[in-house]
């Protein structure tokens, strides 16, 4: 699922009719259909495309948006950004798009992070006990996290006994 479709499906309010959606890239066919269905009135995108330009397809998308009264504009105008925090977000987004290769350079900084497998196994371990089935759910969470990540039941048991 594309980010635009995901954002529309997981909206935080009942209706997003008449809203503006901000995208990092020019919308594709799936995104455009979701945008029209949600009755969004403006699409603002930052970058045209990373590759595979198809002018005929892009023209059809523009025509489809125009026929449904959806405005399409490229880039966020810096003059319209009022808050410094928002400007920093836009600047960072532009930087990340321009410097994709920097992501690999930061791998060394992430060496202390747990793996996805450890993360999801930890979540599964935490999820298997329902709150209320034990005396104190907070202590159970502490116990399972300590036991799951430190792999030392004596340390986990000592911590649990300390908090009980």
From TrEMBL:
Gene Ontology, cellular component aspect: cytoplasm
Provenance organism: Amphimedon queenslandica
What is the name of this protein? Answer: dCMP deaminase
Q: What class of enzyme is it?
A: hydrolase
Q: Where is the signal peptide?
A: none
E.C. designation(s): 3.5.4.12
Q: Which GO terms describe its molecular function?
A: dCMP deaminase activity
Pfam families (UniProt xref): dCMP_cyt_deam_1
Q: Which PANTHER family match?
A: DEOXYCYTIDYLATE DEAMINASE (PTHR11086:SF18), DEOXYCYTIDYLATE DEAMINASE-RELATED (PTHR11086)
Q: Where is the CMP/dCMP-type deaminase domain?
A: 1-72
Record flagged with keyword Hydrolase: yes
| Keyword field | Hydrolase, Nucleotide biosynthesis
């Amino acid at each position: 699922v594309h980010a635009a479709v995901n954002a529309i499906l997981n909206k935080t309010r009942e209706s997003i009719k008449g809203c503006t959606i901000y995208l990092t890239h020019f919308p594709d066919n799936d995104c455009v259909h979701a945008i029209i269905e949600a009755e969004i009135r403006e699409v603002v995108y930052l970058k045209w495309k990373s590759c595979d330009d198809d002018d005929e397809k892009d023209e059809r998308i523009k025509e489809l948006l125009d026929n449904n009264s959806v405005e399409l504009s490229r880039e966020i105008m810096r003059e319209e950004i009022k808050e410094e925090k928002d400007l920093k977000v836009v600047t960072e987004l532009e930087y990340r798009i321009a410097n994709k290769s920097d992501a690999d350079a930061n791998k060394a900084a992430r060496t202390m992070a747990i793996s996805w497998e450890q993360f999801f196994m930890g979540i599964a371990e935490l999820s298997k006990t329902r709150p209320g089935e034990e005396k104190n759910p907070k202590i159970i969470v502490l116990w399972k996290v300590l036991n799951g990540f430190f792999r030392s039941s004596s340390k986990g048991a000592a911590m649990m006994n300390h908090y009980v």
